[in-house]
Amino acid sequence: AQSVTQPDIHITVSEGASLELRCNYSYGATPYLFWYVQSPGQGLQLLLKYFSGDTLVQGIKGFEAEFKRSQSSFNLRKPSVHWSDAAEYFCAVAFSGYSTLTFGKGTMLLVSP
Amino acid sequence: KAGVTQTPRYLIKTRGQQVTLSCSPISGHRSVSWYQQTPGQGLQFLFEYFSETQRNKGNFPGRFSGRQFSNSRSEMNVSTLELGDSALYLCASRSDPAQAFFGQGTRLTVV
Fold first, then answer.
1. Does B79 touch chain A (CB under 8 A)?
2. How many angstroms separate the CA atoms of B98 and B34, rounded?
3. Could you give the CA distance from residue A5 to residue A18 in angstroms, rounded to a whole number?
4. Cβ atoms of residues B93 and B101 within 8 Å
5. Do B101 and A46 touch (CB under 8 A)?
6. How far is residue A65's CA from residue A35's CA, in Å, rounded to a whole number?
7. Which residues in chain B touch residue A90, judged by CB atoms under 8 angstroms apart?
8. What gap in Å lies between CA A98 and CA A9, rounded to an integer?
């Protein structure tokens, strides 16, 4: 069965510093990959997705992610974090475009002044 | 275009009661999925409906059920509520492959 691992439960980053959130997946083939963000008390917002092609994917709010097949990873990055980026971030996979999403446990991002 | 709307936003129920949650998808979206989010288990898939038919089902007991109407609006029902059913229930709708849009969720508290 497919699974997603986000090894960091919490990460604290200083405002203006760079960010990398890790995501590893377990699946026989290349799945569809996603990053979502959730602010307190809110639903999930899609940041970016990877289906195929260029392994570096650009998303909204200045985020990007890189797919590395050899490492089964899809890490999320941002060059300069803003206080408004504080939220919980979820990596998710699906084995086809219309299959269900399997989520990681999430990484809570805290931004310090 | 209006987003995914879930009602109510908050609910408090007593153990043993039943509850019905509603989800109105984005106009034109025929697929609606439901997820349960808890601090311990994270986000878990409940079921998906497409054109009034259940297309996928997660590993939840039969107390959890759902349906979809001809206008794509969906409801989920939980019977004989247990304390462990306290969670944020999220609904997502989609038309494009894997482009799922989530509602703000219904926060269910069982006391």
1. no
2. 14
3. 21
4. yes
5. yes
6. 8
7. 43
8. 29
d(CA A33, CA A35): 7
* CA trace torsion B24, A85, A25, A33 (10° rounding): 50
pLDDT by residue for chain A (113 residues), tens only, comes to 778 999 999 999 999 999 999 999 987 777 899 999 999 888 999 999 998 888 999 999 999 999 999 999 999 999 999 999 999 999 999 887 677 899 999 999 999 99
Structure tokens at B26: 């984005």
Task: Please report where in the chains the tokens 């990596």 appear, as a residue.
Answer: A91
CA–CA gap between residue A66 and residue A74 (Å, rounded): 5
Tokens of B78: 């939980």
**pLDDT tens digits for B14-44?**
999 999 999 999 999 999 999 999 998 999 9
B62's tokens: 């039969």
Shortest distance, CA A79 to any CA of chain B (angstroms): 25
SS3 content of chain A, % helix, strand, coil (to 5): 10, 50, 40
Which tokens sit at B25? 């998808």
Sequential DSSP letters for A58-86: E-GGG-EEEEEGGGTEEEEEESS--GGG-
Q: From CA B80, how far away is CA B58, in angstroms rounded?
A: 19
DSSP string, A6-30: ---SEEEEETTS-EEE--EEE-SS-
Query: What does the block give as tokens for A104?
Result: 């990681």
